[in-house]
Automatic annotation (TrEMBL):
Segments traversing the membrane: 9-27, 33-50, 62-86, 158-177, 217-245, 251-270, 277-298, 310-343
Leader sequence segment: none
A biological process from GO: transmembrane transport
GO cellular component: plasma membrane
InterPro entries per the UniProt record, alphabetical: AI-2E-like
Name listed for the protein in its UniProt record: Putative permease often clustered with de novo purine synthesis
UniProt keyword annotations, A-Z: Cell membrane, Membrane, Transmembrane, Transmembrane helix, Transport
Organism of provenance: Moraxella catarrhalis
Family the entry assigns: Belongs to the autoinducer-2 exporter (AI-2E) (TC 2.A.86) family.
Main location: membrane
Compartments, as annotated in UniProt: Cell membrane
Membrane topology note: Multi-pass membrane protein
Amino acid sequence: MYPAKIDPFFRRLFILSALCLFLYALFLMKAVIAPFVAAFILAYFLNPLVSRLALIMPRILAVSVVYISCFVVMGALIIWLVPMVWAQMQILWESLPHIITWYNDTGRAWIARYTDSELLPLDIDLISNTALDYFQNNYQVNDVQGLIKQVFSSGLTAANNIGLIVMVPILTFYFLLGWEQRLHTWKLSVPKPYTHKVVRIARDCDAALMNFAKGQFLVMLLLGAIYAIQLQLIGLQLGLIIGITAGIASFVPYLGFGIGIIAALIAGLFQFGLDWIYLGLIFGAFMIGQVVEGYILQPLLLGDKIGLSPLWVIFSVLAGASLFGFVGMLIALPVSAVINVLFHYAYDAYLRSDWHEGQRQLPLWKEDD
């Protein structure tokens, strides 16, 4: 009695179908998986600090200390930052009528003088009516019942999103608590002949990510302070919020500089008018920030942590934006750092291979005798 054998084609078809169904199920559950992914990323970056504290105390206590410290720091930042940002937002709101007046009286005339186009004047009532018409046409709240249903539906969606956000710290806690056990389990799952190599590659990827994350965080913090202090010294009323935003956005190369200088020049134009001295000072502030970032902050804090040339940095950011939008821009450099490490290992393996040494070649590439 011979054992039944499964045809290789049907076995591969079954594996491929099962894999497609699994990926489709993950796609359907993307809203549920998102907080787990966010929690895993947070746990990954917090784990080094927890591991150091775990050397002198139980791990659950180390996780609790790190959590409490993070909440205290975030609370202090909010208490210090929110009033200043709120004051800046009030200044922006109070400046809107002056901005519209400047546009109608000065900006339109300047544009008409140097170009052939004449822009329409802005009217606050017209803007309000246009926004109201858009709201009515797109959200269909012609009766009270429809409005209540829409508000209720939006409230449920908001509550669901808030619930998922609240889950992230809880999930991060459990990820941190069992981090070492999970790493040990994953290590045991690797085939024994490849364990040493896989662990070494993982450690190099981990070092590249950690060095980049720590250096980039300090660059963002210091660059935001440099922009904000310079703009405040110039006298730009919105300098604080523009500088902080530019510093945070500098996580994506060239994005912080672009957003900051455009917003600062527009704000300066509305506040100072066509005063070339003030506009030149604003432009010079961002040029100084770029020089400090490129020649002081990045060499000292980042150095060659990623190992990518400026051309590859730009390509990575554009490719990430093209594939995944704004999220792709955020993860472009960390992902590129990991790919760079994997590429170097693959290239070294290729240089040591029989194929590169000429001992083994494909028949198509062999030279005729």
